[in-house]
C-alpha cells in the first residue's frame, strides 16, 4: 500500500502529460498526414516558409508549385503547411466537357 502511494503522483503526472501534450500532438500529426496525402493538382497551398502557390505536379515526395506566370518551384511534400483552397475536380471536368 505504501509503494502504491509513492508511485501515485508519478502516475497522475504521466496521465496529465498524456492528455495535455502527447494525445493532442498525435491528433495534429494525424491530421497533417491526412492533409498531405489528400493533396492534388490545382490545390492552392502555403508552404512552411510562407510561399503561396498552386500545385502543378505531384510525386510521392515532391510538389511542384506555380508561384507566378511561368515560375515553377519544387518543394518537399512535407514543406506544405496548409491548403488555402482545394481544387474541385467535378467543376473542372464540367468545364472541360463544354
From TrEMBL:
<keyword id="KW-0811">Translocation</keyword>
<feature type="transmembrane region" description="Helical">
    <location>
        <begin position="6"/>
        <end position="22"/>
    </location>
</feature>
<keyword id="KW-0472">Membrane</keyword>
<keyword id="KW-1133">Transmembrane helix</keyword>
<keyword id="KW-0813">Transport</keyword>
<keyword id="KW-0653">Protein transport</keyword>
<dbReference type="GO" id="GO:0015031">
    <property type="term" value="P:protein transport"/>
</dbReference>
<dbReference type="GO" id="GO:0005886">
    <property type="term" value="C:plasma membrane"/>
</dbReference>
<dbReference type="Pfam" id="PF02699">
    <property type="entry name" value="YajC"/>
</dbReference>
<dbReference type="InterPro" id="IPR003849">
    <property type="entry name" value="Preprotein_translocase_YajC"/>
</dbReference>
<keyword id="KW-1003">Cell membrane</keyword>
<comment type="similarity">
    <text>Belongs to the YajC family.</text>
</comment>
<protein>
    <submittedName>
        <fullName>Preprotein translocase subunit YajC</fullName>
    </submittedName>
</protein>
<keyword id="KW-0812">Transmembrane</keyword>
